[in-house]
Amino acid sequence: MIEKNIPQIDAILGDHKTSLGEYYAGYRNHVYRMVNFCFAQRELSETDRSKIKIAGSFHDIGIWSGKTFDYLPPSIELAREFLDRNGQSEWIEEITEMIDQHHKIRPIRTGSLAEIFRRADLMDVSLGIFRSGISKEQIQNIRKEFPNEGFHKNLLVVAGRWACRHPFRPVPVLKF
Predict the structure, then answer these.
(1) Lowest-pLDDT range, 15-19, 25-29, 97-101, 167-171?
(2) Could you report the per-residue pLDDT of 48-62, keeping only the tens digit for each?
């Protein structure tokens, strides 16, 4: 079942609407796709679902708030501030891992939520080429519900600018 209305995500992203600017709709839909891809991978407790929603909301936001393609540090910092403000400091380590490792090339073998999160982002960035056990139909339904709105095109533009300015560090967010 696709979750179409997630108030927790909308509240977090609403607080950052100004920094997201014209990219708000594309990023919001990316977050919704990712979160739904996470939920489709396995049954999760309400606590784990909430952690995924928070990590999803912040995982790439540093591209716009920090105006950089080296966006993991500013994304993590915003998530930490949010968790501190909302009395969820005990989640900082796990959500930091989810954000920090979501572009890891190799699987995360800790059994943590970070691996589910990593696979979900890969599903979305690859436009469903990588499916992690989710049916092609399910991925298509999620993508249809939350259209791209230029998200991938914007990523290519931002990445291209970064690569031109930093040719020896073209993709700073990749981890092995």
Answers:
(1) 167-171
(2) 999 999 999 999 999
Decide: pTM greater than 0.85.
yes
Dihedral sign of CA atoms 110, 125, 134, 46 in order: positive
Q: At what angle do helices 92-100 and 72-85 cross, to 10 degrees?
A: 160
Residue 71's identity, in one-letter code, is Y
In 34-58, which positions are buried (b, 16+ CB within 10 angstroms) versus exposed (e)? bbbbbbbbeeeeeebbebbbbbbbb
Q: What integer pLDDT is reported at residue 87 of this predicted model? A: 97
In 3D space, the residue among 1, 73, 21, 24 whose CA is nearest the CA of residue 10 turns out to be 24
Report residue 135's pLDDT band, with 50, 70 and 90 as the boundaries.
Answer: very high
